[in-house]
Design a protein that fits this description.
It comes from Leucosporidium creatinivorum. The protein has three domains: 281 residues, 3-Layer(aba) Sandwich (Aspartate Aminotransferase, domain 2), CATH 3.40.640.10; 150 residues, Alpha-Beta Complex (Aspartate Aminotransferase, domain 1), CATH 3.90.1150; 376 residues, Ribosomal Protein S5, domain 2 (2-Layer Sandwich). 38% of the residues lie in helices and 17% in strands. It contains 30 helices and 30 strands. Strands 16, 17, 18, 19, 20, 21, 22, 27 and 30 form a nine-stranded mixed beta sheet that branches. An eight-stranded mixed beta sheet has the order 1-2-8-7-6-5-3-4, sandwiched between helices. Strand 21 and strand 22 form a beta hairpin. Helix 14 crosses helix 16 and helix 21 packs across helix 23. It starts with a strand and ends with a strand. 47% of the residues are buried. About 5% of the residues have low confidence. The protein binds adenosine-5'-triphosphate and (R)-mevalonate. The site of adenosine-5'-triphosphate has 27 residues, from helix 20, strand 20, helix 21 and helix 22.
């Protein structure tokens, strides 16, 4: 093992040369202070132990071809445990990989085997579903012989990992990523996945197979990975004349475990192979620059002919902008489809300069069919499930002249009948791809399946924030719970190539031609929302051009949020649907109407577009409780958060979390490296609250921005207030969870905290005269109640605690007095169900006779859903049987 500190090469041979020549001018010292660039670092091998100089001043690291070392107490005793040639290599690899520790072993698979030995029986590992065949084979071995559970998931969509990560029955201790994948060149967002995994499973290790990129193009440790390995057989050595694997990490504990395994099993790299690999690494940047430049030409050539080409250097490659963020180049492996396996075999067989070979990374160009070669060990059924085309051809580009490579490929395509000449004039004949019969058939089938999606109804609750609104945006804990006023969405399938959004609350309806939507603008970051990142602004801007202007300008945000989610979740299916959304919640009044709307569109889309499986159908509302798993609710919540951000700007996430999961919670947002948290609270259920809508309209986005501005301008005023609000939330939480506290102490404590929190909110500038009027009225005798604003303030709603001994007649009088003052009241309990779902096509009561006596499935009483007054929606929903809830 070798350790470097600092990780990047800042000590240079020039330093010693300059000082021995007495070079100490300002310019030369400035120049020397700069770390070497990558190619220089590759070419310059530092001595891991400068106190131990080579006795003859050898310019190349000697091969210490010895099994044993004489004497006792020296640095080396036995080559299995350590060898100077290997130490030089490992030190060099660590330096170019931004790593503190590096290890060299006998192959890439040997490296993975060493890493897998960090796992224990009963552990779960998440791995991609487009993995190198050898990694897949080793994972199967672990599953069968070592009691390790393996989950193959689509790592291009980080949200698909959440259900397994958050499942308490799965002890996920490792996540194995490859990006770009081999051979489909799919992109996994190492940074997003690492952050997500570390948040949900801090003890899990993120392992990245970086062979396709090499440390020259991508250094995953810089993006949050814990362990990185490369098959050194590929780009690091570059000549296909040795087998090697390297492992890098920064964590001391992992380094110790890895060193122990290598020493115990004895698969450290031999001195001779260490020498060869060290020699190869010196030219890594030089080789890859050439290989990558030619790859761009080859990819473009095939793409222009009309083949489906997988290469992250091509515009439009899915995940390209994530890849560009993680890596500094597209690499030198690409793959393309011919849509005909036999045709692919003919192309591969006809190539001359492109050698038929497994592996990649060599200076010579290679061609292969992964399903027959590198990935043949994966069961054909599994290959199909993982969308690995049997006809796929992989090209690994070498350093030959690009013209020769393209000539040879062209000759092979022509000989195999994959292309034909359309114009012989010019220096290169004009060719076009010959379409296969299978392709034409497939296209017909695709057209037929469009629009065939489930119809269903979903609902989501609003919320009341008892303590901590606004402060929660800045990392303070909020105490909040769901209320029994909900938003409802009906998703209906249609067949006319259009999608409609109907918003009766805004007297608004918009219909778009699906084909005319800007599909080419759906970026991969839009398809994989992350809690800490903002929605893709350029996509939002493009969608803003597509919205239909209604009477109320606020509807624009609702439309953009809808289109953003519809397009990001549609994939290639693009179903024709109508979404009708109705709210029993007052809109823009502090009860989380935007979050409930966001959860409705998120859940309706995730289920109708088959991203989540429908829960088993139930016959009564009671049986439907917990029919939706918390894992599914987390996925719905993640997408709802994106919609909420589009509507709100910078929400904390508390509203959508309550609207998704329901119940009552203590919620803390993660800010600036401080961990967030989410805890369920149960003490709310029996407490009655009165909500009073002042009817003064306001906008959460503006109010939240106002507090943020104030925090920036007057930190000495705002920061102590935030601290006090944290203390209020902490005390409220204690009081709600302390089973020894008497009921009367509990209620009087909450009342005191309500008064304190309200005055802090007023100091933050989000109070309003109308809210003070409600506070004063409810505080008057004979009522004497305690009230605070709830939600964003500036108008909107106030919340009042109703003590247990408050009589019904007093409550009626109070409500009348508030109504006289022009306010609207709602009595609510806190802590009911999260989002719910009613699948209509599987509901037996929904089958009726259609035209010509045929049976037809319609939504249950959809007409009543559309026609009911807002206040009647809850009664309508209760009347419908078969709801499934979180
Ligand atoms: N039923 C609905 N149909 C369409 N859009 C809606 C609906 N309900 C809410 N919205 C969207 O949410 C916006 C209201 O969000 P806003 O954050 O201002 O209020 P709120 O969520 O009710 O209050 P708070 O965030 O303080 O709890 C509306 O302007 C609209 O864009
Ligand atoms: C004002 C605020 O704290 C609550 C809005 O309901 C904003 C947020 O948390 O997103």
């Amino acid at each position: 093992m070798a350790s470097t500190d600092p990780p990047s090469g800042t000590s240079t041979p020039l330093d010693s040369a300059a000082s021995s020549l007495g070079g100490n001018s300002l310019t030369s010292s400035l120049l020397r202070a700069k770390p070497y660039r990558f190619a220089t670092q590759c070419a310059t091998v530092d001595n891991p132990d400068p106190s131990h100089k080579d006795q003859h001043g050898s310019s190349s690291v000697p091969i210490y071809q010895t099994a044993t070392f004489k004497g006792m107490g020296g640095q080396y005793d036995y080559t299995r445990s350590g060898n100077p040639t290997r130490s030089h290599l490992e030190h060099h690899i660590a330096k170019i990989s931004s790593a503190r520790h590096a290890f060299a072993v006998t192959s890439g698979m040997g490296a993975l085997d060493v890493i897998f030995r960090l796992l224990k029986p009963g552990d779960s590992i998440i791995a991609g579903n487009d993995l190198y065949g050898g990694s897949n084979r080793l994972l199967t071995y672990l599953k069968v012989h070592n009691g390790i559970k393996v989950h193959h998931l689509d790592t291009t969509k980080p949200s698909t990992l959440l259900p397994v990560l958050t499942n308490p029955e799965q002890n996920v201790t490792m996540v194995l990523l490859e990006t770009p994948t081999n051979p489909l060149l799919q992109i996994a967002d190492i940074a997003a996945i690492s952050a997500m995994v570390h948040q949900h499973k801090p003890e899990a290790i993120i392992v990245v197979d970086n062979t396709m990129m090499s440390p020259y193009l991508q250094r995953p440790l810089e993006h949050g990975a814990d362990v990185v390995y490369d098959s050194g057989t590929k780009y690091l050595s570059g000549h296909h004349d040795l087998m090697a694997g390297v492992i890098c990490c920064n964590r001391e504990d992992l380094a110790k475990g890895i060193a122990f395994t290598i020493n115990s099993i004895g698969n450290g790299l031999s001195p001779f192979d260490s020498f060869l690999l060290l020699r190869g690494v010196k030219t890594l940047a030089l080789r890859l620059d050439k290989q990558q430049a030619t790859s761009h030409l080859v990819a473009k050539y095939l793409h222009d002919l009309g083949f489906k080409v997988n290469y992250p250097g091509l515009p439009g490659h899915p995940g390209k902008e994530i890849h560009d963020r993680l890596a500094s180049g597209a690499g030198a492996v690409l793959s393309f489809e011919t849509k005909d396996k036999a045709l692919s075999e003919r192309i591969v067989g006809a190539a001359r300069l492109w050698g038929i070979s497994v592996s990649f990374g060599c200076i010579n160009s290679l061609i292969s069919m992964p399903c027959l070669m590198s990935h043949a060990s994966i069961d054909p059924k599994v290959r199909k499930e993982r969308n690995l085309p049997e006809d796929l051809i992989r090209l690994c580009v070498g350093i030959e002249d690009p013209e020769d490579l393209i000539d040879d490929l062209e000759a092979a395509l022509l000989e195999a009948g994959a292309v034909r000449v359309v114009d012989e004039a010019g220096s290169r004949a004009k060719l076009e791809r010959v379409r296969t019969a299978e392709e034409t058939e497939e296209e017909d089938v695709e057209v037929k399946v469009e629009g065939e999606v489930e119809s269903l109804i979903v609902s989501a609750p609003g919320k009341v924030i008892l303590f901590g609104e606004h402060a929660v945006v800045h990392g303070i804990t909020a105490i909040a719970g769901s209320v029994d006023l909900r938003c409802y969405a009906l998703a209906e399938s249609r067949q006319d190539g259009k999608v409609s959004l109907v918003l009766p609350d805004f007297d608004f309806e918009a219909t778009w031609d699906i084909a005319s939507l800007p599909w080419d603008q759906v970026t991969s970051s839009a398809k994989a929302p992350r809690p800490e990142s903002t929605p893709d602004q350029s996509f939002v801007d493009v969608l803003a051009q597509k919205v239909v202007r209604g009477v109320d300008p606020k509807v624009v945000q609702s439309e953009i949020a809808f289109l953003y989610l519809y397009m990001s979740l549609s994939e290639h299916k693009r179903p024709s649907q109508t979404f009708t959304i109705r709210s029993a919640l007052p809109i823009g009044a502090g009860l989380g109407s935007s979050a409930a709307y966001s959860v409705c569109i998120s859940s309706a889309l995730l289920y109708t577009h088959s991203h989540l499986p429908l829960p088993p159908s139930t016959s009564s509302a009671h049986e439907g409780r917990r029919a939706i798993t918390p894992e599914q609710a987390n996925v719905v919540n993640a997408w709802a958060f994106t919609a909420e951000k589009i509507i709100h700007g910078t929400p904390s996430g508390v509203d959508n979390t309550v609207a998704s999961l329901g119940g009552a919670i203590a919620f803390t947002k993660a800010v600036k490296g401080r961990e967030g948290g989410l805890d369920g609270l149960h003490g709310f259920k029996s407490i009655r609250f009165l909500l009073t809508d002042t009817k003064v309209s306001r906008d959460t986005k503006t109010l939240v921005a106002g507090v943020a501005r104030r925090k920036l301008e007057e930190p000495d005023l705002v920061n102590p207030i935030l601290k006090s609000i944290q203390a209020i939330s902490d005390e409220a939480r204690r009081c709600l969870t302390d089973s020894d506290m008497s009921r009367s102490t509990q209620l009087s404590t909450l009342e005191k905290l309500i008064d304190e929190n309200h005055s802090h909110l007023v100091s933050l500038g989000v109070g309003h005269a109308s809210l003070e009027a409600v506070k004063a009225k409810t505080g008057e005798q004979p009522w004497g109640l305690h009230t605070k604003l709830t939600g964003a303030g500036g108008g909107g709603c106030a919340v009042t605690i109703i003590p247990d001994d408050f009589s019904e007649s007093s409550l009626t009088d109070l409500k009348a007095a508030l109504a006289d003052a022009g306010f609207e009241t709602y009595e609510t309990s806190v802590g009911g169900s999260g989002f719910g779902l009613l699948s209509t096509s599987r509901n037996a009561s929904s089958v009726v006779e259609g035209e010509g006596g045929a049976e037809k499935t319609v939504l249950p009483d959809v007409a009543r859903f559309r026609g009911a007054a807002a206040a009647e929606l809850a009664a309508w929903a209760e009347g419908e049987k078969g709801w499934a809830f979180v």
